[in-house]
Amino acid sequence: MNFLLCKFIELLKNFNIPDSIGILLFLPLPFFVIISFLIITVIFLVLFERKLLGYFTQRKGPNRVGVWGILQTTADAIKLLCKENIELLSADKFLFTLSPLVAFSAIIILWCIIPYNSEFNMINSSVGILIYLIVSSFPMLFHFLAGYSSNNKYSIIGSYRALALTASYSVPVIFIILSIVCITRTMNLNKIVLFQTSYWLIFSNFLGFIIFYISSIAKLNRCPFDLSEAESELVCGYHTEYSGMRFAMFFLGEYAELFVMCMLISILFFGGYLPPFGIYLSNILSGNCSLCRYLIYFEQTFWLIFKTLIIIFSIIWVRATLPRLTQKKVLELFWKYLTPLSIVNLIIIILMRI
Amino acid sequence: MNKMTLNLGPQHPSTHGVLRLILELEGEKVISCEPDIGYLHRGMEKIAESRSYIQYLPMVDRVDYLCGFFYSYAFCNAVEHLNHIEVPQYANYIRVMMMELNRIASHLLWLGTYLLDLGAISPMFYTFRERESILDYFEKITGQRMMYNYFVFGGVRHNILYFDDVLNIVNNILFKINEYENLITDNPIFLSRTKGVGVISKTKALDWGLTGPNLRASGILNDYRMNMEIYDDIEFDIVLSNEGDCYSRYIVRIYEMRESVFIIKQCIDWLKSNKVIPDPVKFSHNEYQKGEIYSFVEAPRGLTLCYLNSVGETTPYRLKWRTGSFYSTQILRDILKGVSLADIMAIYGSLDVVLPEVDR
Fold it and tell me: What secondary structure does DSSP assign to B117-158, as a single string?
C-alpha cells in the first residue's frame, strides 16, 4: 500500500498538490477499487454459476441477453433494483431493513482484508485472519435476524437452522486456521502468502484443507449444507419474505461471500497471489523494463483470481451433484467427525512444529 | 416448547401440485399432519354423466396427465367388456407397449422430481432428457405429448408404429438408468436421506390401501398386471423390496423401469413377427348395453379402477375412478407423525403422488 501511496503522491505533485491532501485523497481510493471490483465480480460470478450449472445439466444456461448471455445477470440486477420492496405489516421493520444492509457491508469488509497482490492490501493487519473470522460471522447472524424479523414461519425455521449450523462449522474452521497459524507463525494474510513461496500449505496441511473446504461450503450456506434456505422444504428460508433491492443484497452478498471465501482458501492453502511455478510470467516476457514491476501486480491478482475460480468451480460442481443433508446429519458430521479430526490435525501440526 | 401450526402448501415448491398439509410442529418435529386435498377437483366423474362415451374418451387422459394411456385403457376396457367388443390381439400388444413406455416416462419424472425434493438439481434434467425422447415418440405416433387419446373402443386409433425408434429409446434408457444409479444409488447423502426414513410396514400399507410400487416396496407381492388378460403371454418379474422405506420405494421404481423395457421388447418381437394386421373393430355408438362393470389396470401409481354403470343410454349413468395417489396421500397423516420437517419432503416425494389424480 505504501508503494501505491508514494506513487499517488508523486503523481499529484505534478499538479502542485501538497502531500497531506494527497494522503487524504488517497484514503478512499482502494475502497472504491474494491467495491467496483466486487460488484463486477459478483455479477459475472452469478453468470458463471448459471452457465456452469447449465452445462452440468445438459443445458446452455443464459444465452439471450447480450453475447452468450453475458448481460443476463446485469439485467437481473437492474430488474431487482426497480422492483418494489414488499414488507409484511407484522414484520419488524427496523431489523427487516437493517439485516440485508449489515450482512452485505460485512462482506465488503471481508473483501478489504484480502491481499490481492503484494502491494494492494487495504487492511494489512497483523491479525488479519482473526478479523476475517470475526467479521465473517456477521452475515450469518444477520441472516438469522432477517428470518426472525420477517415474521414468517418458514423464515423462522430457516433462521434456527442457520444458527445451529453456525455453531457447528465455526469450531473446525477455527481449529484449522489455528493450525495454519502454527505452521506460518503469523496471522497476517500477506505473510501467510509469502510463507508459501517454496511450497503451498495444502501439502503440509492436507487434512486441514479437506476439513476447511467442507466447513466453508457450510459457511457459505451452499449445497449440500443449504439447510437454512432449503428450497424444497422452507421455500427460501430466511429470505422468503424479501423482495427487490433487499433481496438483491442477500443474493449478491451470498455470491460476494462465496468469492471472498474461495479467495481465503486459495490464500491459506494454495499460495494466494503467488504464481504456481514460482516464476512470474511477466518477468520472463518483459525482461527488466520499468513497466515490469507494475505488470507483476496484475499477474499476482490474476493468479489469485484464477485459483479462486478453480475452487469456485469445484463448489459449483458439488452443488450440481449432491442432494441436501438433513440437519441431524450435518450436526453429526461436524461434531462427530470434523471437529475431532481438526483437533487431531492441530495437535499433529503442533507436535511437528516443536 | 411452543407448538406451531404450519400450512405447507397449497402453494409450495415441492408439493408438486396443490396439496395442503396442515402440520403441527414442535420445533422441527411433526406432531400431527392433516392432508387437505381437493384444490384440483375438476369433476371428471360428474362430467362423464353428461358426455357421450366418445366425447368422454379424450378427457380420461387428463385424470393423470403423466400416464394418460393407463386411464384410457381402463375406460376403453370397461366399455369394451360391457358391450362385448373383441379387441384384436395386435391392438392389445400395442396397448401394452404404449402403457409400459408411459410407465417409464412417469417413473422417470418421479425420479427427477424426487431428487429435486432432496436437494439435488441435476438428476431432474437428466431424467427429463430421457422422458423427452419417449414423449417425442408419443407425439410422433399420437400427435400429443401428454393427452394422447390414442386408445379407442375396440383397439387403437391406428397402427403405424416405428419399432426401431422404440428400440433405440428403450436401449438408451436401459443404459441411462445405470448412469442414474451410478449418480444416486450409492450416494451416502442420498442413503442417509432415504434409508430407514418413512417406513411403511406391511400391515400399515395394506390397512391404508396402498397399491403399486409403494405396496411392493413394503414387501407385499401384489401386481395387478398378473391378473390382466393382455399381459397373459408376457413374461416379466415383479420387483419387491422388504424394508418399506423411501429407499426401497426408489429401488422398486428403478427396477420396474428395467422390467418395463423388458416387456416392451417382448411386445415389439411379437408385433414384428405378426404380419397380419387386423382391421380396427367397428361398432355402433348408438347402441350401448346395460350393466355395470369394474375395469382395472396397474398404473405407475398403483391400482386404477374404473367403475362404469350404464343404463343403455349414449352417456354413462355413473362413472367412478379409483386411483392410487389418493390412498398414498391419506397415509401421510399416519407416517408423517414424529418425523422431522426435512423428512416430510423425502417421504411425501417417495410416494409419487400426482395431485390431479387424487382429485380428479
Answer: HTT--HHHHHHHHHHHHHHHHHHHHHS-SS----EETTEES-
